[in-house]
Amino acid sequence: MKQLTSRRRSFLDDLSGYAFISPWLLGFIAFSIIPILFSLYYSFTEYDILGDPTFNGLENFRRMLGDELFWQSLKVTFFYAFVSVPLRLLFAFFVAMLFNRGTRAIRMYQAIYYVPSLVGGSIAIAVMWRRLFMADGALNAALAKIGIVTDISWIGNPSTAIWTLILLAAWQFGSSMLIFLAGLRQIPRELYEAASIDGANPFKKFTHITVPQITPVIFFNLVMQLINGFTVFTQAFVVSGGSGDPLNSTLVYALYLYQRAFKYYDMGYGSALAWVLVLIIGIMTGVVFKTSSTWVFYEAKEGK
Amino acid sequence: MKARTVLITILVTLLLLPGVLFAQAATEETDSNTMRLAWWGNPTRDERTYKAVEMFEAKNPGVSIETETTGWSGYWDKMNTQAAAGSLPDLMQHDYAYMLQWVERNQLADLTPYVDKGIIDLSKINDSFLTGGMVDGKLYGISLGTNAVCLTYDLAVLKKAGISEINSATWTWADFERIALQVYRKTGVQTIPFFTTDPKVGFDNMIRQTGASTYGETGIGFTDPAALREFYAIQLRLLDAGALIKPETAFVTVSPEEGAIAKGETWVEFIWSNQFVSTQAAAQRPLEIALLPNIKNAKAKGTFLKPSMFFSIPASAENPELAAKFLNFFVNNIEVNDMLMGERGVPIPDDVRAYMSTKVDPINKQIFDYISLASKNAGPIDAPDPAGSGEFLKMVRDVTQEILMKRVSLDAGVAKIMSRGNDILK
Amino acid sequence: MLNRKTKHLLGQTVFHIIVILLGFLMLYPILWMISNSFKTNAEIFGSSSLIPKSLSLEHYIRGWKFNNTITFTTFFKNSFYYTILATFGAVIASSLVAYGFARVPFRGRSFWYACMFLTMMIPYQVVMVPQFIIFHKIGWINSFKPLIIPQFAGLPFFIFLMVQFIRQIPYELDDSAKIDGCNRFMIFSRILFPLIKPAVITSTIFSFYWRWDDFLGPLLFLNKPRLFTVSLALRMFSDPQTSTDWSAIFAMGTLSLLPVLIIFLIFQKYIVQGLATTGLKG
């Protein structure tokens, strides 16, 4: 941005600048700032949408401490995000390494592996997923074919239900794979060639060149996907039938918030829950950024 | 450069064109000939209700009714959202338990004006059938039928296990347990956990037999947890004997066709009497109906007759007159009730009921017989559910699963229901 | 000993076998769904087979009719209406705003740009409740307004993407156009907009996907079946307590994926490119 600010400003520039950003600016005020302020206010009130909000101080936050389902939803969400995101990135990285070679068929393979990411967010897939993991679903039928006969209901058992959601997330590793693949291809060839001359073996090349070069990409994706992981809703809503069943084992945070706000009309408490989510995401992002310097390799020519 | 501009233009036009074409797609129609109708249901009920709608539309050319249906568990979430958004349908199925709460929130319209105008005809209906839908002398809902809690069982399986009959009026939970074990030992057929959709309905019956009720003025209405404890103890004993269907499977919500009784995995299922129609249709084999068993030293009757499947007109309805007209048709018309076949319960108008009892349809006869048996063995109905009951029911269902999946002990689970219940309902 | 060539060939073969097997596993759930749309319920339960006994379209016809009063024609119309209008708004507005941020040196630019970045980090759940209440008060519930109009403010993610793109374009182009007598809007619409085509197309595709699959928005704001999008209708259709017609549900589910898949096939190149640029650096 440095090079841009050096240009001279004029009143006309101000005018046209604000004219150009006005759609966003208006939207920002109307659909972000105002709702955010309201949300902050509601989080200190009791509000059932039919009446008027009544101020109750920190009561909503105090109530969270004793709210079993709040803690349960936090537990579920953390488990979900911290298992599914690394799992997905790991898959993505592994497959990207596999594809990082010049075979003509790669383009087609890429497309095939990307398809789950493409459709994974749709309701149709979530509905199908539920059917897939029921006691009489395709998974048990397939297991039976290879000799493992079981009547376990994967979506009905509290210990396995969350794994169906994690699997659904990990299954969509295609977009991360494409990103990593592009990252791998940007690593300068000379680095590998130089290493070969120095007599490095493939493993050494991987740990000394590939991994350090790709970490910024992994890092960026880790942060973005963790944030998304904390706000997962649709899949949990559909696979659990909207309830977080069985035994609240799929009650992710966003689903609990939705239930509070739009099932029990606990708008004040719901808003407070939302702010706790902001806090968590903020802290998480902060921690990842703070620690990133120890494990993320940035190119020397910094300052772009 | 030019080719690019052309491409962009084409792209944008392609994007815009359908937008313009579809622009009229989502407009709302609110003329006096359209109305929305919502109910919770099951495949059998949905099919019959669609037919009733078609019959009404055929009789009233130009009228069109839009239908919305979900299962019981999703229905109230949806209706609550619609209530908050001010977009309730013109006619909605309602439940005795929730009606008072809705009236207090001013969501329902008084039906008396439509009765006075002659749109709704109550002349054939005994007043006792109407009181359930009345609050402070105003009529907020008309019931489509009378129901009672029951259990349905597969007599063929019992016979295979050497049990010839159940004396429904006198049997006890000890009998039930003995039968369940014997059936499992002799035939391998299991027992389903009691009332998996809403376990409260099950223990409610036992608590009523002790002379108390589940809900009190504030908090829960009973202090002695013995009945509640027994409700779970029986199931746990069956579970330990291998005779109970695993809760992991039993508590997954499925349609009747995929239910355990339809698939022959259980000899018994716990339902409301009107659900017998859809259960029977899904099972495709003869089933019997019985009263819930008695507890030891019962002080009162657990069973009660419930005016069920109310239909109410929301205060925000856009076309209440048409809704009232349909409601009248739905309740009083003999032809339509002939097709509905008491799927929502035993009809309340005298002439319709008299007509229906002459019908030889065996399933209906079973339900009629059961209702008359139940009415001889019924106590008065409890007060409607207090506010917060929705949350209470969810908690009960959660703890029930915790107990049956052995994540908490029986005593801790029961204590949890008592204390959490008092918190939620205070 | 194997010579180098056969060793290479063997490696290639093993690679292809592994990749194809894994690829089949990846696609299996989708293929299973498609094949289920031709099966009967009895064939679906307890079966992992991908081959239906017959290939009739009866489940599609039955599913399309939905409940006879409203059909999937309405739901698809609604989905297209919402998706196309929202996408159009989001992309056009984003490109305008991006130009402003990237090229016009107005006062407070850095501040607003930072604000925009912050909104990308704030979860939707925060504004969900007050937005519902506000839209409720101004009577926007049960219309497409709360879903479409905010899109006309542009999407931070797209704005960011386009700003990155515009910055790569040399200033000389702007300057020469200015000498030719173009004003800022003309520079934007005639010179820069065509040049950021890849970013525009990427944003269009992403917006299309997100709007088409959007579930929470319609769930909150559309409560009348006549207004339902395909996503909502599918969810209502597959209510676990009332639905037994899995074949019809899967048939409509398959159809709901078609627009997404078709766009993917047409714009494959741009999607791969777009993902690479959006996901590589912050």
Which key features would you list for this structure?
A: MetI-like fold, 2 strands, disordered N terminus, B: 426 residues, alpha+beta, D-Maltodextrin-Binding Protein, domain 2, 2 domains, five-stranded mixed β-sheet, 11% strand, globular
Write the layout of secondary structure elements.
The complex is a heterotrimer of chains A (304), B (426) and C (282).
Chain A: H1 2-5, H2 11-42, E1 45-46, E2 54-55, H3 59-65, H4 68-99, H5 106-119, H6 123-132, H7 138-145, H8 161-171, H9 174-186, H10 189-197, H11 202-230, H12 234-239, H13 253-262, H14 267-295
Antiparallel strand pairs in A: 1-2
Chain B: H1 2-22, E1 34-40, H2 43-59, E2 64-70, H3 72-85, E3 91-94, H4 96-104, H5 112-116, E4 134-135, E5 138-139, E6 142-147, E7 149-153, H6 155-160, H7 173-187, H8 199-209, H9 226-240, H10 247-250, E8 268-272, H11 276-283, E9 288-290, E10 306-312, H12 320-332, H13 334-340, H14 350-358, H15 362-376, H16 389-404, H17 410-425
Parallel strand pairs in B: 1-2, 1-3
Antiparallel strand pairs in B: 3-10, 4-5, 6-10, 7-8, 7-9
Helix pairs in contact in B: 16-17
Chain C: H1 4-36, H2 41-44, H3 58-65, H4 72-103, H5 109-121, H6 124-137, H7 145-148, H8 156-167, H9 171-179, H10 184-195, H11 197-213, H12 216-221, H13 230-237, H14 246-280
Helix pairs in contact in C: 3-14, 4-8, 4-11, 9-10, 11-14, 13-14
Structure, explained:
The complex is a heterotrimer of chains A (304), B (426) and C (282). By secondary structure, chain A is mainly α. Chain A has one domain (68-295): MetI-like (MetI-like fold). Chain A has helices at 2-5, 11-42, 59-65, 68-99, 106-119, 123-132, 138-145, 161-171, 174-186, 189-197, 202-230, 234-239, 253-262, 267-295, and strands at 45-46, 54-55. The longest helix of chain A has 32 residues, at 11-42. Chain A is globular and about 75 Å long. Chain A starts with a helix and ends in a 9-residue tail after the last helix. Chain B has 426 residues and is of the alpha+beta class. Chain B folds into two domains: 34-147 and 305-376, Periplasmic binding protein-like II (D-Maltodextrin-Binding Protein, domain 2, 3-Layer(aba) Sandwich); 149-303 and 388-425, Periplasmic binding protein-like II (D-Maltodextrin-Binding Protein, domain 2). In chain B, 47% of the residues lie in helices and 11% in strands. Chain B contains 17 helices and ten strands. A five-stranded mixed beta sheet of chain B has the order 2-1-3-10-6. In chain B, helix 16 packs antiparallel against helix 17. The longest helix of chain B has 21 residues, at 2-22. Chain B is globular. The mean pLDDT of chain B is 88. Chain C folds into two domains: 4-56, no CATH class; 62-280, MetI-like fold (Orthogonal Bundle), CATH 1.10.3720.10. In chain C, 73% of the residues lie in helices and 0% in strands. The mean pLDDT of chain C is 88. Chains in contact: A-B, A-C, B-C. At the A-C interface, helix 2, helix 4, helix 5, helix 6 and helix 7 of A face helix 1, helix 4, helix 5, helix 6 and helix 11 of C.
